[in-house]
Amino acid sequence: FTRVLTVRDRSGSCLGMGARRTPPHGSHGSADISHDADSYPQEVEVGNVEYKLKLVSPTPARFQQLVTQLAYRLAEGRGRAVYLLGVEDDGALHGLCPRDMSASLGTLRRMCGHVSARMVVAAQRTKGVPTGRIAEVRIEQFAECAQVEVRIAVLGSAQAGKSSVVGVLAGGPGALDDGKGSARTLVMRHMHELETGATSSISQQVLGFDGASRLLNWTEELARTTSELCASSTRVMTLLDLCGEGSY
């Protein structure tokens, strides 16, 4: 690894490369990461550096814990954090095979989406690593901004496909129309609408996006509630599906 790691103390002051800090319980950790070190200093609970052996297929509950932990590391680093993948908590180098490394980076990328942050793989190392490689990932949080809300009314004549378009956009993974109106059933509100295929009321569907414009409506194939979505989104889009029949 190149020596690029930054660690901050509780006051937010940067510790220089090679500087040492005193974590809890009197043990010592180091901010120095050398490309030829046999192991790294033991992970400490404070600061913006996190070691992870791997991040492969976490359960929804575990994923939420990981997101909370990432938010803490970012707060410690005032919007910046460093993750070392393939490293034990005690600093021992373990390494990951290509498949586990790819899965771990994918999980970390999803975590970043939940805290409006971007990540970049700064370096990877194979020398002295028992299995595969380890990776250093730098994470930076987007500047906070006020939530932006956009409302779009979908207009058109009857049977133009308005409800179908809204259903595809808001219906979740794989919610494509089958050519027979399956998508529109996801947004229709009344039984007579399902029976006739004609929308008689105004329905609204909310889409939420993070700072990187990633859709946040679903996690692990599960839909978020509207309140959860609005709380975690930096941009919210409301689709208003209007009636097309003249009688309505």
TrEMBL record:
Domain of life: Eukaryota
InterPro entries xrefs: EF-Tu_GTPase, P-loop_NTPase
Gene Ontology molecular functions: translation elongation factor activity
Disordered: region residues: 13-38
Protein name in UniProt: GTP-binding protein 2
Species this protein is from: Emiliania huxleyi
